[in-house]
Structures are given as structure tokens and as C-alpha cells.
Write a structure and sequence with these properties.
The chain is built from 17 helices and 10 strands. It has helices at residues 23-31, 42-61, 67-81, 100-117, 131-135, 141-178, 198-223, 243-255, 266-270, 273-299, 329-352, 363-387, 396-405, 414-417, 419-431, 436-442, 448-454, and strands spanning 3-8, 11-16, 183-188, 191-197, 225-226, 260-261, 310-311, 355-356, 359-360, 393-394. It folds into 3 domains: 3-137, Fumarase/aspartase (N-terminal domain) (Fumarase C, Chain B, domain 1, Orthogonal Bundle), CATH 1.10.275.10; 143-396, Fumarase C, Chain A, domain 2; 406-460, Ribonucleotide Reductase Protein R1, domain 1, CATH 1.10.40. The protein has a two-stranded antiparallel sheet. A two-stranded antiparallel sheet has the order 3-4. Strands 5-6 form a two-stranded parallel ribbon. The mean pLDDT is 97. A hairpin with a 2-residue loop joins strand 1 and strand 2.
């Protein structure tokens, strides 16, 4: 491999000749060889490109950056956003907790790439742009990384996570309406309970997902507030008057998203409570999806020895040894994702609680876990919706069998003959393996005609 030398405040560093990164990136690459696949999320790199472009535009408008430099910075940022420089961002999540090295990675790549675009060569001693003085002008890693983190999270959640949950929600809502009159037995404590309809059961899932989306959207209100302009500790040192509001407006314009400048810059530097809240909302969604996935897995269990009240698509063979076996793989994948999201939230909680004095130095950890949760939930909901939920159908034969067999239909007699007498009927039917009707008539507590009139599952589900 051929190398060139780059320079920083600690001296010269040997860098791969064809790479656009510089000395600080190379030092980090050498010093933090942690994890097999722990690269800084591409969403963060692209968010940094938005930050650097917006900062250049704001600095130009405020008269502290030349038009030539503004254009060069913006041009390279567009290349980053268009995935043309992906191989030049090699750093891992496990680095300095402020994300300084990723910030400098972006600064160095922009400076070196801009120099080449302007006709220069990598390795030239003097370059058109300086990574600190020009690309990082009016910025600090301490306010750029939190800003990039918010941009990346907001974009991913609004573009993937929420739409994915809503797609699944809409499918379940249609199924709920389609099967609103399909009466089935309910279950509480994993035991038989009074009946409800399949549509009613599905409607509970729909409401859970509505609430999950509401919680996520509510948490995004704080994520919209950007730390940029706070500089190193929140005071705005070395930033021009009006810069925080202007650069936030530039970011909003570039992204077409409602970002604003945080009214207090000390808070988003010293803490990452907005990301903790977002992570909590994602975990809340995971909790709901875990319940939904498990219910569908159990309701479809069988095909002959389980509950089997619904049918789900048979997507692939389920066993390497048992011929003909088909497993509920989509619910399994969904619930594994939910477990991962719950675990991610624990890491974010620990990271969020470790903001010390004027800076939280768990920023890369928090960013990576929130982004992974958002990605996984969106992808899993889309997969589950496409490959499972859209194909849910009632298994009418099993539904009727379980409904006819249930002892809990006796609850309809409570207001007619009292709880104690109804209990006697259920007990006799259970111990003697008889129907409720047979037990009721034998105990002379209800006539056959009254039993048929009073014990009607459709009357018990409150849909008329």
C-alpha cells in the first residue's frame, strides 16, 4: 500500500495515499480497533454533511467565509449525501465519547476532497481549505455531534420507523374490520375466558400501534431542537452573532424538516435527554410489538395440537429434521428485534445518565443504539406486515371448536341465576366432561329453552 503524510498538532501521520481522511482520523483508526462491525452509522456521516453544508452557508451569509470556500464545502457535502465518499469514513462507534474524531474525519475528508476538486493533489503541503479553520468554522465537536445525532435520528424515524409501524397498523385495522363479527373465545391468564371477536382482538393491537406512534411523534418535538451554535460548552464561543438561529434555519431548509435552534445550548451538550426520550418511545413500541408478535405466534400455533385459531402465511420450511414443519418465522424475527430494542434502550439510559458537567461523553453509543432501534423497528414492521400480517385469516373450524368447548360461556348466566349457581354448572361440566347445557339442565338450574336463549356468544361480545 502506498502512503502519504498528513500533519496535525501532534506531528506527522502516515495515511493511505488514496484516502481523503487526514491525521486525526488515522490516529483514531489505529487507536480504537474495537469490534468487528462497529462503524459509525452512515446516517451520522450524512447528517454531518448536512451540518457542514449548513454551517458553510451560514458562515458565508455572516461574512466570515468566502464564496469559493462555501461552494467547495457544499459540493463535497453533496457528494457525501449521494454516497460517493462512503469508503473515506472508517471510524468506529467506540472512540472518544464526544465524537470528536468522527467530526474531524468529516472535516478532513471535506478539506482534502475540496482541494482535489479545486485542482490540487492529496499530499500538497498547502491546501485551499483547513479542516479546523474553514470546514469546522463556528463549530465544535461538542455541538456538531449532538446536532448530527438529532438530524440522523429525526430523519430515520420519520422516513422509516413511523411509516413502518403505520403500515402494519393499517393492515391490522383492515383485518379488524373484516373479522369484527367472527366470535372466538377470549383468554386471560392463558386460561379460557369470555368470548370476543377476532376483530375486537385485532383492534387492541391497532390501538397499541396508534399509541406507539403518538409517543414517538411526541418525543421528536425535543429532537427537533439543535445544539449547533453552543460551541464547546454551550456559551457560543467563537460563533458570530445570529449564527445559531441562521444555521438551524439552513438545516431546516436543506432537510425540509422542522429543525430549530435549541433555546438553551447548555442542556443538549451536557445531556442527551431528547435521545433518551426517543429511545424510550422506541422501546415502548417494541413492547407493544412484542405482545402483538407473541399473540399472533400463539394464535396460529399448531397446525393440529396448538390453538390454531388464525392462519398465517407459510413462508419457508421450518425444520431440518421434521418433514412438513412450518414455523412462525416472521413473529420470531419481530420479537427478536423487540428484544434488541429493549436492550438498546438500557444502553441509551446508561449513556444518558452519564452526562458530566458540561458534556455528555457517551454520544456515539447513544446515537448508534437509537439509530439501530429505529432501523430495526421500521424494517421489522415492514417485513412482518408484508410476509405475515397481510395474510392473516381466521381458522373458522378451530375457532368454533374452542368456542363451543369453553366453560366460560357460563358467565352469561351470572345475572340470571347468580355467580354461585353458574359456578356449579361450570364445575359439573368440567369434572364430568359434559357440555354446559347438559350440566345446567341436569342441575335443574336452567331449562333447555332458557339456556339456548341466554347463552349466545354473539350476545356476549357487545357488537350489536
Amino acid at each position: 500500500m502506498e502512503y502519504r503524510f498528513e500533519h496535525d498538532s501532534l506531528g506527522d501521520v502516515k495515511v493511505p495515499a488514496e484516502k481523503y481522511w487526514g491525521a486525526q482520523t488515522e490516529r483514531s483508526r489505529s487507536n480504537f480497533k474495537i469490534g468487528p462491525e462497529a462503524s459509525m452509522p452512515v446516517e451520522i456521516i450524512k447528517a454531518f454533511a448536512i451540518v457542514k453544508k449548513a454551517a458553510a452557508l451560514a458562515n458565508y451569509d455572516l461574512g466570515i467565509l468566502s464564496n469559493e470556500k462555501k461552494i467547495l464545502i457544499a459540493s463535497v457535502c453533496e457528494e457525501i449525501l449521494n454516497d460517493k465518499l462512503t469508503d473515506h469514513f472508517p471510524l468506529v462507534i467506540w472512540q472518544t465519547g464526544s465524537g470528536t474524531q468522527t467530526n474531524m474525519n468529516v472535516n478532513e475528508v471535506i478539506a482534502n476532497r475540496a482541494h482535489v476538486l479545486a485542482g490540487g493533489s492529496l499530499g500538497d503541503s498547502k491546501k485551499i481549505l483547513h479542516p479546523n479553520d474553514d470546514v469546522n468554522k463556528s463549530q465544535s465537536s461538542n455541538d456538531t455531534f449532538p446536532t448530527a445525532m438529532h438530524i440522523a435520528a429525526y430523519k430515520l424515524v420519520t422516513e422509516l420507523t413511523i411509516p413502518g409501524i403505520q403500515n402494519l397498523r393499517n393492515t391490522l385495522d383492515k383485518k379488524s374490520k373484516d373479522y369484527m363479527n367472527v366470535v372466538k373465545i377470549g383468554r386471560t391468564h392463558f386460561m379460557d375466558a369470555v368470548p370476543l371477536t377476532l376483530g375486537q382482538e385485532l383492534s387492541g393491537y391497532v390501538k397499541q400501534l396508534d399509541n406507539a406512534v403518538r409517543a414517538i411523534q411526541s418525543s421528536l418535538i425535543m429532537v427537533r431542537e439543535l445544539a449547533l451554535g453552543g460551541s464547546a460548552v454551550g456559551t457560543g464561543l467563537n460563533t458570530p452573532q445570529g449564527y445559531p438561529e441562521l444555521v438551524a434555519a439552513k438545516i431546516a431548509e436543506i432537510t425540509n424538516l422542522p429543525f430549530t435552534s435549541a433555546p438553551n445550548k447548555f442542556e443538549p451538550l451536557a445531556s442527551h435527554d431528547a435521545m433518551v426520550e426517543l429511545s424510550g418511545a422506541l422501546k415502548r413500541a417494541a413492547v407493544s410489538l412484542m405482545k402483538i408478535g407473541n399473540d399472533i405466534r400463539m394464535l396460529s400455533s399448531g397446525p393440529r395440537c396448538g390453538i390454531g385459531e388464525i392462519l398465517i402465511p407459510e413462508n419457508e420450511p421450518g425444520s431440518s429434521i421434521m418433514p412438513g414443519k412450518v414455523n412462525p418465522t416472521q413473529p420470531e424475527a419481530l420479537t427478536m428485534v423487540c428484544a434488541q430494542v429493549m436492550g438498546n434502550d438500557v444502553a441509551v439510559t446508561v449513556g444518558g445518565a452519564n452526562g458530566h458537567f458540561e458534556l455528555n461523553v457517551f454520544s456515539p453509543l447513544i446515537a448508534a443504539n437509537v439509530l439501530q432501534s429505529a432501523q430495526l423497528l421500521g424494517d421489522a414492521c415492514n417485513s412482518f406486515n408484508l410476509n405475515c400480517a397481510t395474510g392473516i385469516e381466521p381458522n373458522y373450524k378451530e375457532i368454533k371448536k374452542h368456542l363451543d368447548n369453553s366453560l366460560m360461556l357460563v358467565t352469561a348466566l351470572n345475572t340470571r341465576i347468580g355467580y354461585e349457581n353458574a359456578s356449579k354448572i361450570a364445575r359439573k361440566a368440567h369434572l364430568e366432561n359434559k357440555t354446559l347445557r347438559e350440566a345446567a339442565v341436569e342441575l335443574k338450574l336452567v331449562s333447555p329453552e332458557d339456556f339456548d336463549a341466554w347463552v349466545n356468544p354473539l350476545d356476549m361480545v357487545n357488537i350489536r
